[in-house]
Automatic annotation (TrEMBL):
Protein's recorded name: Cytochrome c domain-containing protein
Species of the source: Fuerstiella marisgermanici
One Pfam family named in its UniProt record: WD40
PANTHER family, A to Z: F-BOX AND WD REPEAT DOMAIN CONTAINING 7, WD40 REPEAT PROTEIN
WD repeat copies, ranges: 215-256, 257-298, 347-378
Keywords linked to the UniProt accession: Heme, Iron, Metal-binding, Repeat, Signal, WD repeat
Coiled coil (residue ranges): none
Domain Cytochrome c: 12-110
Length: 928
């Protein structure tokens, strides 16, 4: 009773001075209360951050009695000396006057505005020079032939060519950080707010700048505010991590999109207005369904804060950029239901964080600005570098395209400028071949000249002249006390002429570790290609030796793609297969055995965390546009054979850039020499060709099963085309999954010889008719020899059948009517493997990364885990997934599954890779 009297007395003391009620109470709440009672940290379940949270009360019930405010729990705890007085002892305490103001606030109904959880401590610093209001945002207003600009406490409309002001309005106590234009109405939407206090969006009239409506609800500064294409909905987001959807007519908040755990810096509607994308300090971009508020996807590939997000004019691509210096694009497919939006490109764009992007009106160009003052323009399809704009000395705060050919930039110092942009048709060259000469078809004679090394040929000035083709024999031995010997030979070549240079040393038991270089006659190195880095990375988990072709674990591997080149410390490899799970890395070419190197580089070891780069080849004389990453010149030189056929002996394919004399210099790579360091160096014309090896010519097979045959190609002198292989003349009842193809650039293909129910034991005459053939368009057909043995088995341990998932009512596939599956690049389909167990009840394994035999390069059995495609002893059926990389092309081929039980295979399955959406034969389940 006494406490109640004291409270009423205190309230009556201030009741006569109504001026107390006119003073804002929010600063006092921020100073003494919000540290513990905010939306994030709710002590006893109470938040005083917004009116809604105050009305919600605490764990002890309501804190405001609307009928008798003096009886409110909030009034009780505000009384000094009460048992449960707030703030608690040990915390800063309000003065008597401040307590009276708080008590009067309770008596008046405790109305508050939304606010931040704390008040920043800002020192009183006076400017030492004239203050010019900063410009922070801009937008093109084509219907007025104008641009809108905004910044600290103002918005203005300027004529788009002269940049003269049409109108200027003040925005009280706020800064505008983004402007966006309505589609059908004469409105501008401005994102504004005061850091640490509140945030809102302003709807402004384009005609005169007056404020039509305000949209609040944020407790801190709003960084982005956009209006949907129908002009019925405004989305706002900012420092408080909330995304609010406001109804334009009523001003009400329709939805609160929660999901980011960092500030939201950028928002963008798609052209339909049904989707909203958001970019956040949490390093993600999210896709939202506007109608339901459902999060459709989280794009998690970025590795740092994302400051800008845009959607292409056709609504098919998402662009995002941020503190990891990259611009990324995704294919936008999650439109109605959650679905993975596939990453389509990632470009290292600037050396520092990218904080602004803008799309041209026709959507063909993308501009980006970074914290280091660099400005760049990109083509959008594909995402390629287009133009470097002048570097800015003062921070750029916004980008806006005007008429597709001009880019408006605003700066922090209040200045602005229109910059000229090249037309989008002026795309840079991406050629990787020689530009100084066409490849010539100059062939040397067949007969090779046998030449012995002459004395005193240890520098380019005294190089020994040789007539090609030639095989030169010599020794790298000490000469006159010089421990390092060098042998040089001069030859002539025509522009574009190709030559093969090969060393035989280790092959002949010589201790020489040869290195060869082709130089100009004055000793200058000749550039073979320029490799421009487009993405940076480094080795994770473990380093690499100089042989391994698998488990290439590199940082940010998801932004890499099959057949891209990876450069590390002078070596170039080519990515062959994706990592197959959390405990694996990329496989590089050729996919088995020792790895290959490209552009004449030499395989070498790489340390853990050593840097590496995705690189793009360019012509030697091409002028490259700097992108902030290194450019690596590759010269005509080689240490060890890149194809790993000659061991430590050298092999180099040289293309003459001009008709001239050249010098080949031969040394020991370690600088050693000796009387027994002998070699032979052959210089000749290339003779592109191939050979094919077969792992077996003997097969035992049961009806309804198959056995595998492996074909391995040896590619000679740069021949890289496809090779077709078939087994012909098989007796009735037997078949082969061919013709199969060793694809261009690949070294292996796999086939299965199978039997049907009508098969009979072949006669010797029938066996003699079986032969293996290989062919290419260039070389025609080659006979690979006779078959040796074909045996019919009557009691297999099991049979393997591949069927379409969910097709239990269909006729099982057979040799006469094989299963046909269809897949699109970038998609995943589902199938089922079934076992007919006869004499084997144990585990059946179909392998790990190689479980789908003879799938086209870039198509693989997916989601196999650490154990691969495996059926346990009590299983006779399992679904599995087949994924196609986005880079593969249309094709039709056959594949099968091979078990670990006597090598028994399934019958072949036909797989069609199609570009159109004709997926009836296969069940599409997801996007990669």
């Amino acid at each position: 009773m006494l406490l109640r009297i004291l409270i009423v007395t205190s309230l009556m003391t201030v009741a006569g001075g109504r001026a107390l009620a006119q003073q804002p109470v929010e600063p006092l709440l921020q100073k003494y209360c919000l540290g513990c009672h905010n939306d994030t940290d709710k002590e006893v379940g109470l938040s005083l951050q917004t009116m809604a949270s105050l009305k919600a009360g605490s764990d002890n019930g309501p804190v405001i009695d609307s009928e008798t405010p003096a009886k409110s729990l909030l009034a009780a705890v505000l009384h000094k000396g009460a048992d449960n007085a707030m703030p608690p002892d040990g915390e800063p305490q309000p003065t008597d006057a401040e307590r009276q103001r708080l008590l009067q606030w309770v008596l008046d109904g405790a109305k508050i505005k939304s606010m931040a959880a704390g008040v920043p401590s800002v020192p009183a610093v006076k400017p030492f020079d004239k203050v010019v209001p900063a410009l922070l945002a801009s937008a093109h207003v084509p219907q007025h032939k104008a641009v809108a600009v905004a910044g600290a406490r103002h918005v203005a409309l300027l004529e788009q060519d002269s940049l003269e002001a049409k109108w200027r309005v003040a925005v009280d106590n706020a800064r505008v950080t983004q402007l966006s234009l309505a589609t059908t109405q004469p409105w501008l939407v401005a994102a504004s707010g005061m850091p640490g206090v509140n945030g809102k969006a302003l709807l402004l009239s384009v005609d005169d700048g007056r404020v039509v409506k305000e949209f609040g609800g944020h407790t801190d500064a709003v960084y982005s505010a956009v209006i949907n294409p129908s002009d019925r909905l405004i989305a706002t987001a900012g420092y408080d991590r909330r995304i609010l959807l406001h109804d334009v007519d009523s001003g009400k908040v329709l939805k609160n999109l929660d999901g980011h755990n960092g500030s939201v810096f950028s928002l963008c509607f798609d052209p339909s207005g049904k989707l909203l994308c958001s970019a956040s300090a949490d390093g993600t971009v999210k896709v939202w369904n506007v109608e339901t508020g459902e999060r459709l996807d989280t794009l998690s590939q970025p590795t740092a804060e994302q400051y800008a997000v845009l959607i292409s004019r056709d609504g098919k691509q998402i662009f995002a950029a941020g503190a990891d210096n990259r611009i990324r694009t995704w294919q936008l497919v999650s439109r109605d239901t959650p679905r993975i939006n596939r990453l389509t490109a990632s470009r290292f764009a600037h050396e520092q964080a990218i904080h602004r992007m803008a799309l041209s009106a026709d959507g063909t160009l993308l501009a980006s600005a970074a914290e280091d003052g660099t400005l760049r323009v990109w083509t959008t399809s594909p995402l390629e570098h287009h133009q470097i704009l002048p570097r800015q000395k003062r921070p750029v705060t916004s980008l806006t395209f005007v008429n597709n050919s001009k880019l408006l930039i605003t700066r922090l110092d209040g200045s602005l400028e229109l910059l000229a942009v090249k037309p989008s048709t002026a795309a840079p060259s991406t050629s990787g071949g020689p530009s100084t000469a066409e490849v010539a078809s100059v062939m040397l004679p067949e007969k090779i000249n046998e030449i012995s090394e002459a004395e005193n040929n240890n520098d380019v000035q005294n190089a020994q002249a040789v007539s090609l083709p030639a095989t030169i024999t010599g020794v790298i031995k000490p000469d006159g006390g010089n421990d390092r010997d060098v042998d040089c030979f001069r030859f002539s070549a025509s522009a574009g002429q190709q030559l093969v240079l090969e060393v035989a040393a280790q092959q002949n038991k010589s201790p020489l570790d040869s290195k060869i270089e082709v130089l100009t006659t004055d000793g200058k190195r000749i550039v073979r290609t320029q490799l421009q880095a487009v993405r940076d990375s480094y080795f994770t988990f473990r380093g690499k030796d100089s042989d391994t072709a698998n488990d290439y674990r590199v940082f940010n591997w998801r932004e890499m793609e099959l057949n891209e080149y990876l450069y590390a410390d002078g070596e170039v490899v080519k990515l062959w297969m994706y990592p197959r799970g959390p405990d694996s890395g990329y496989m590089v070419y050729p996919g088995f055995g020792k790895r290959f190197a490209y552009f004449g580089t030499t395989p070498t070891s790489h340390a853990l965390q050593a840097p590496c780069f995705i690189v793009v080849p360019h012509a030697p004389d091409e002028k490259l546009t700097p992108n902030g990453l290194p450019v690596f010149p590759i010269y005509f030189e080689n240490d060890d054979d890149p194809q790993r056929e000659l061991g430590s002996d050298s092999r180099l394919l040289f293309t003459a850039p001009a008709t001239a004399d050249y010098t080949v210099r031969l040394t020991d790579a370690r600088g050693f020499s000796g009387a027994d360091f002998s070699y032979s160096l052959t210089v000749r014309s290339p003779k592109p060709d191939f050979e094919v090896a077969i792992n077996t010519r003997k097969v035992s097979v049961a009806a309804g099963t198959g056995k595998e045959v492996v074909f391995t190609a040896k590619r000679i002198d740069g021949f890289d085309g496809p090779i077709t292989i078939d087994i012909t003349g098989l007796p009735a009842g037997f078949g082969f999954s061919g013709p199969i193809e060793i694809e261009a650039g690949q070294l292996q293909a796999f086939g299965t010889v199978y039997a049907t129910d009508g098969a009979k034991e072949p006669t010797p005459e029938q066996l003699a008719n079986i032969k293996v053939v290989a062919a290419s368009e260039v070389h025609g057909e080659k006979d690979l020899g006779k078959w040796e043995e074909l045996e019919l088995v009557t009691d297999p341990k099991l049979k393997v059948l591949v069927t379409r998932s969910g097709a239990s009512d269909e006729q099982p596939p057979s040799a006469e009517k094989p299963l046909v599956l269809t897949i699109q690049p970038g998609d995943t389909i589902q199938a089922t493997v079934k076992l007919d167990r006869r004499k084997h009840n144990g585990i059946v394994s179909f392998g790990k990364e190689n479980s789908g035999r003879n799938l086209p390069h870039g198509v693989f059995v997916d989601n196999i885990g650490l154990n691969g495609l495996l059926l346990l002893s009590d299983q006779s059926e399992r679904e599995f997934f087949i994924t196609a990389a986005k880079v593969i092309h249309e094709s039709t081929s056959t594949f099968y599954l091979k078990s670990n039980v006597d090598g028994i295979t399934s019958l072949p399955v036909t797989l069609k890779v199609v570009a159109s959406n004709g997926l009836a034969p296969g069940k599409q389940v997801t996007n990669r």
